[in-house]
Amino acid sequence: MVEKNGASSIDTPKRFVRLRQFLGDIPLLAWLFGGLISVLVETQVGDALASLLGLPKVPVLFGCVLALKHPLLLPGALAYVSVIYIATIVLVGKITARPFNLLAEKMIQWPIVIPVAIHLITLYAIMHVWSDISLYRELTLKLTLIAIMLTLSLNIINGYMGEFSCSHPGFMSLGAYGASAIMVLFFVNDRLFGKALLPEALGPFFFPIALILGGVAAALGALLIAIPSFKTRGDYLAIISLAFMFIVKSLFENLQFMGGARGIKGQPDLANLPTVFIWLVICVWVINNFVRSTMGKALNAVRDDEMAAEAMTVNTRRTKMVAFLFAAFWAGVAGGLFAHTVRFINPNTFGVQRLAEVLAMVYFGGLNSVYGSIVGAVSLNLLSEMLRPLALFKWIIIPLLLILIMIYRPTGLVAFKEFDVRKLIQPKHKSEKEV
Amino acid sequence: MQLFFQNLINALQWGSFYALIALGYSMVYGILMLFNFAHGDIFMVGAYIGFGVATGLTALAAMGALALPNWVILVLTILISMFLTSFVGMLVERIGYRPLREAPRASAAITGLMIGIILETGNLAILGAQRIRFPSLIKSTTYDLGGVFVTNKKIMIVVVSLVLMLALNEFIRRTRWGMAMRAMAFDYVVIPLMGVPLNTIASLTFALGSGLAAAAGILFAIAYPVLDPYIGIIYGWKAFVAAILGGRGSIKGACLAGFLLGFIEIFVGAYMPSTVRDLIAYSIILLILVFRPHGFFGEPHSAKLRL
After folding, report:
1. Is A311 buried (19+), middle (13-18) or exposed (0-12) by CB count in 10 A?
2. Rounded distance between C-alpha atoms, residue A430 and residue A20, angstroms
3. A residues 160-179 closer than 8 Å to B (CB)
4. The CATH number of domain A135-421, selected from 3.30.450, 2.40.128, 2.60.40, 1.10.3470
5. pTM, to two decimals
6. What is the number of domains present in chain B?
7. What is the pLDDT of residues A178-207, one digit of tens each?
8. In B, residues 61-100, which contact A (CB 8 Å cutoff)?
């Protein structure tokens, strides 16, 4: 019955229609369940399968690194990935589609918190099991999650507000330095700040406060840009924010009590996977609600036509200011998490290179969309880790890819798409209904 | 007092690099309303092309195939490199900016940024990570003017850059092409309807800007003969800020702001620890921009990013 429907469509290639219909009735929860099963299978039989296929160890990042280093192992890596991930997920998803569809139908009537919590817990379980296999996986995953926060917060300014801000590394470094200074001052015996002032056991409780203070520091910095920038229109913000970024970098290079050019190291190891994940969930939730609120819609109105928005009683200056500070706050929080993940920061971490990276993620994924930021951050982060064996040529391939994306989809891959949780978790019965 | 004049000379030299690079940014921004983030790297490519041309010419001269005095070789190097680099600029426009003319301007800025990264990495991949010594084309002689030491290189650098700036100014003001460019800066939606080819003017703008960047690159390499692929990032971004400070599309403004930036950097470096140089330079620029939002010679315009 699936094939019959596939034949009726003329526009799209037949294969893809069939594939889409074959996979279309799997609800999100069944996908997640399939993912969970596949990572569990990997922990059980991964080593055995890898040695069977002639691989030296379990492929860490989907076999890409391995295949690029030793091209002869490519078939083995491909087989590994398709057996462990693709086949298992599709098989489990397809088998469990019916019960999970029934479950999803029930869940959609419950208060939204419960199904969302179930999905998130499953998602976290997948990440936890997947990253348990190697430390490298865990680090990559944490950095990817932090990159999502950064991208999302820049998307508020560059996508939803339609300005061009270059100051994100600056906000990030304000947050990173703020949070690190607090944590190192209170909980670590350090050459820079002296003895720890509080017992180390209190660290995890103070960590969120430190992150929030870091975010507030970033927002205060943003205020310095926002006050002069939003008086006039035009490309003003781009220049002011660029200058601000350089000023912040140079400031931290000169603040000797903050470590100067050598930076701060030895932050307590508190940004573990659950912490980062929880912060990311809060960030996505708050930002998604913000952009879908009246304020978010006002922001879009300001972007499309500031004068018309003003005529429609939108307080344009206030709207822009609030959005800018809000974005800066989240960039600061992401910076704090970043500092505690890599546990070493110096002013050079937050230079032009970081700016190019964040901008690339925003424009690759898509403007004005939460999906887009997630897609952009995850794909560019994973891509740059996977292409690591290519060394220099990585920095030719990724920019080329971005140029092509910009030429063929100037607003990014998934632009202007609303992130609707209800739509995401609803049961997928379409193909059955149609028949 | 001597120290002051010494620094003045240094600042003139330092500012002429910024001014020449800023001109390229300013022209592209004025005419096409684009941030050409690849321009700093075109400056770097220009310096490397200059290195190639200079090495080739001096080798030819050493073999006796080309019996020319050193200053002729220098002039030839600058002219040939400007010519070659202008094609790099046109290529960048063709690949990175022309397909995106209808797209949001921010997207074009991203392609520029990415082309810049490709140029840097390509350079690293081709020439390797070691730094390159630029051949010394002219012998350095030092003149003592009452305690102020001036080298002939410094005089040459300042004179050549002033000549180039004046030439550009004359070109823009007196020729038909220059008139077309000014018209395009005035309104690039209507002017093409009057029969002025937008694509040609865009290419010309990039070619001129890149040629000037190449000249800046060679002059920079003569003053500081060690090249590495990242000089474009360091000086390009600063020149970009200077270009905006000068005002949209204003040749005068870009030159003035470039020299101002050079003065600030040299004098801060002379009287204060050099680590605070960027901090003070950017803070002054920020302050100027707060009180003169459209730069020195810019006029208010509604240049909202088209998204």
Report:
1. exposed
2. 11
3. 162-164
4. 1.10.3470
5. 0.90
6. 1
7. 999 999 888 888 777 777 788 878 888 889
8. 95-96, 99-100
